[in-house]
Write a structure and sequence with these properties.
- With 268 residues, the protein is α/β, with parallel strands linked by helices.
- It is 47% helix and 13% strand.
- The chain is built from nine helices and seven strands; from the N terminus they run ααααβββααββαβαβα.
- It has a seven-stranded mixed sheet, sandwiched between helices.
- Helix 8 links the parallel strand 6 and strand 7.
- The termini are far apart.
């Protein structure tokens, strides 16, 4: 199959699975870019349901090829700050590390907004529909929403990382500073992720800027909490694990560079 044939094949399966969407779908231009956008949108809105092997075979071929084209990045492509700390500004879905951290919502099923520009959407879109299915199995077994400050681990499927750790950060109302309780919940996100990393013998973990962006936690304070919490965890547990702080915005890379200089303990 050509790339366009793969995409059309996957779109047809998804539309047949969701007849209510198919009946409302407008005619889409036949160019590759528009068809690929439609495929991502359909994957975003598809609810958890049994996955067809024919779909997964072609989906995995497509996503793996796209991952190769984007280019995977290793620890050597990150900015080394110290023995344990590194910085990386860019697409977290390109990192070939043991685990990347996803800023999830309490449903833990990924973002259902078509083509939404959030990390949850980006990670699920690049990993494939198996990730939503894996999260759904966790949630069905758990029987309730994921509490803020907690985390779960899943395979990464078509991502270059081995695992995805999903954590739910506190949501801060716009134009309000976080409370002490909300700051503690954010710290718990980092602790929960690191505990899972320790339990699974992971040697590298890339943290996104949890709760900033869509969840409105102030960038400066979020970075301070992240670095302090990770420092404390490494000190108490004596872990041999590389921590990558992944940023997307210029303001965040500036903040992390400045804040890490203030934490000398692991600067070796």
């Amino acid at each position: 199959m050509t790339r366009l044939e793969q995409i059309k094949f996957l779109i047809e399966i998804l539309l047949n699975e969701m007849p209510e969407v198919k009946s409302q779908a407008a005619e889409v231009p036949n160019d590759l870019s528009s068809q690929r956008q439609l495929l991502r949108a359909l994957m975003n809105i598809r609810p958890p349901m049994p996955l067809k092997s024919s779909f997964l075979t072609i989906q995995d071929e497509l996503l793996k090829a796209e991952s190769i084209e984007k280019g995977t990045l290793t620890l050597d492509d990150t900015q080394k700050i110290s023995k344990y700390f590194r910085l990386f500004q860019g697409d977290i879905t390109r990192l070939e590390v043991d685990a990347i951290v996803n800023a999830a919502n309490s449903a833990l099923l990924g973002c259902f907004m078509p083509l939404h520009n959030c990390i949850d959407n980006a990670i699920h879109s690049a990993a494939g529909l198996q990730l939503r299915d894996a999260c759904n199995k966790i949630m069905e077994s758990q029987g309730h929403d994921e509490p803020t400050g907690q985390a779960k681990i899943t395979p990464a499927f078509n991502l270059p990382s081995k695992f995805v750790i999903h954590t739910v950060g506190p949501i801060i109302p716009v134009n309000r500073q976080p409370t002490t309780s909300e700051e503690n919940l954010l710290a718990n996100c980092y602790k929960s992720c690191l505990e899972l990393a320790l339990q699974n013998n992971l040697k590298s973990i890339a943290f996104c800027c949890i709760s900033t962006g869509e969840f409105h936690f102030p960038n400066q304070r979020a970075a301070e909490i992240a670095i302090k919490t990770v420092n404390q965890f490494l000190s108490v547990n004596d872990c041999d694990i590389i921590i990558i702080f992944n940023t997307f915005k210029d303001i965040d890379i500036k903040i992390y560079n400045e804040e890490l200089k203030l934490h000398e303990k692991y600067q070796t």
